[in-house]
TrEMBL record:
Lineage of origin: Bacteria, Bacillati, Bacillota, Bacilli, Lactobacillales
GO terms, molecular function: glycosyltransferase activity; metal ion binding
The entry's keywords: Glycosyltransferase, Metal-binding, Transferase
Domain of life: Bacteria
Name of the protein in question: Glycosyl transferase
Keyword Metal-binding: yes
Protein's UniProt keywords contain Glycosyltransferase: yes
InterPro entries hit by this protein: Glyco_trans_8, Glycosyltrans_8_dom-fam, Nucleotide-diphossugar_trans
Length: 241
């Protein structure tokens, strides 16, 4: 999908890159599949008008059309692209989600600032980078349809994440090991390289993405994934046309 706003132009994920990634997946396991889905028509029909010029690209919002795509199964695990899975998440994926719209982990910083009184919880604000989605329930409640409507009319700091947290009526909070957003822990299953706050030597935000290998080493002092990152450096040029 190609998209643009008054200030920016975005380019779609290419067929070439999809084909190359598919070849790697099938090589690892012949049962693996990858499908590139074009959401252009859906996006044009209901664009997030009020949030097109935020720091998040329109592609971050495409998951909100999942309820309109017949290819999407009843249960899906949504992952942001700055995620590293480092352990077995079978139990997380296969948990009972009857009656639940989505399952996620509290946003490390947002939990202190945002709250939905309807949940009757002290902390309830989920990070939307890792979400186990019950599409059957989401279609029943109309959650994503409501979020899309909100995105058209209300500008938000963290657009779809804010809307999902405000409008979800049945969500489950699980331990942070399934979406570690601050610092790698011994029991971390999924590490999420989000923008975070740091207080030393002065207060500042810090953003380091896993594909920025040099800064993973120099800023985070993290060498946990060197084998994988070295492999990435060898193949990344193959993703370009």
């Amino acid at each position: 999908m190609e998209a643009h706003s008054d200030e920016r132009k975005y380019h779609p994920f290419s067929e070439h890159a999809a084909d190359y990634i598919r070849s790697l997946l099938v090589k690892a396991n012949p049962k693996n599949t990858l499908e590139l889905i074009d959401c252009t028509d859906l996006f044009i029909k209901q664009p997030p008008i009020a949030n097109m010029n935020t720091r998040f690209t329109p592609y971050a919002m495409l998951r909100l059309f999942a309820d309109e795509l017949p290819q999407i199964p009843d249960r899906i695990l949504y992952l942001d692209d700055d995620i590293v899975i480092r352990g077995d998440i079978t139990a997380f994926y296969k948990q009972n989600i009857k009656g639940i719209e989505l399952v996620g982990v509290l946003d490390y910083w947002g939990r202190f600032f945002f709250h939905n009184v309807k949940t009757k919880r002290v902390f309830d604000y989920l990070n939307s980078g890792v979400l186990l989605l019950n599409m059957t329930k989401i279609k029943q409640t109309g959650l994503f349809a409501k979020v899309r409507d909100m995105m058209q009319t209300k500008k938000m700091f963290l657009p779809d994440q804010s809307a999902i947290n405000k409008l979800a009526v049945a969500k489950r909070v699980v331990p942070r090991r399934y979406n570690e957003q601050y610092r790698l822990q011994k029991d971390t299953k999924i590490q999420h390289f989000t923008t975070s706050f740091r207080f030393w030597p002065y207060f500042h935000t810090q953003t380091v993405k896993p594909w920025d290998v040099a800064r993973v080493h120099s800023v985070l002092h993290l060498h946990e994934y060197d084998d994988m990152l070295n492999e990435y450096l060898k193949i990344r040029d193959n993703l370009k046309e």
